[in-house]
Design goal:
Layout lengths: L7 E4 L11 E4 L16 E3 L10 E6 L12 E2 L4 E7 L7 E10 L2 E7 L1 E5 L5 E9 L3 E7 L6 E3 L17 E2 L13
Parallel strand pairs: 12-13
Antiparallel strand pairs: 1-2, 3-4, 4-11, 5-12, 6-9, 6-11, 7-8, 7-10
């Protein structure tokens, strides 16, 4: 049996032509630090796990993290989609909880299932949960091969830790820090 690629702990039959395309278990997402919470990211893939692949992460939120928000403001060079879905088949529009996310300097708070399409080079986060009443499906994907983050160095967010994988952290481009932009 061939050795598993980055992050993949169980995949399909390597003796078949397409067995490598079936991934059953992965390591947790290195961009989302474990902050004493139940495992949120049950699937994490990028081009290191599947050759030619794109970034995809997903799982089930069972309770709010003990530390919220969990992400410093950051932006990506590719579009990112954040998908929040109800796990209740009888009430699919009602998320079953309430989340907040900052996009640039706007705070958005919702309790409905939705897709957030974050354009390239747009600051987003912190992200957090005000409440989780029942399991919520949470996914994130990008058309890029990996989800590199240009992380904000604004001192007001210094209490939120950087992601666990330093190789995916990029410094903001000059004049991109929104807190330095003229109003």
């Amino acid at each position: 049996m061939e050795q598993a690629k980055f992050g993949v702990t169980k995949s399909g039959d390597p003796n078949t032509r397409f067995g490598k395309c079936f991934v059953f278990r992965t390591e947790p997402n290195p961009l989302h630090r474990d902050l004493d919470r139940p495992e949120i990211f049950q699937v994490y893939l990028d081009d290191r796990a599947i050759e030619g692949g794109m970034y995809f992460s997903g799982g089930m939120v069972l309770e709010p993290p003990k530390s919220s928000p969990t992400q410093k403001p950051h932006y990506h060079d590719h579009m990112e989609y954040i998908i929040l879905l109800s796990a209740d088949p009888n009430d699919q529009n009602n998320l079953g909880g309430e989340f907040f996310i900052y996009v640039e300097d706007e705070k958005h708070t919702y309790d409905q299932a939705c897709v957030i399409a974050v354009p390239p080079k747009v600051w987003h986060c912190p992200f957090g949960w005000n409440r989780v009443d029942r399991p919520i499906l949470f996914y994130s994907c990008s058309n890029g091969p990996r989800l590199y983050q240009h992380v904000s160095r604004d001192p007001k967010w210094s209490h939120i830790p950087d992601p666990d994988e330093p190789s995916l952290i990029l410094e903001p481009e000059p004049d991109m820090e929104y807190y330095k932009r003229p109003v």
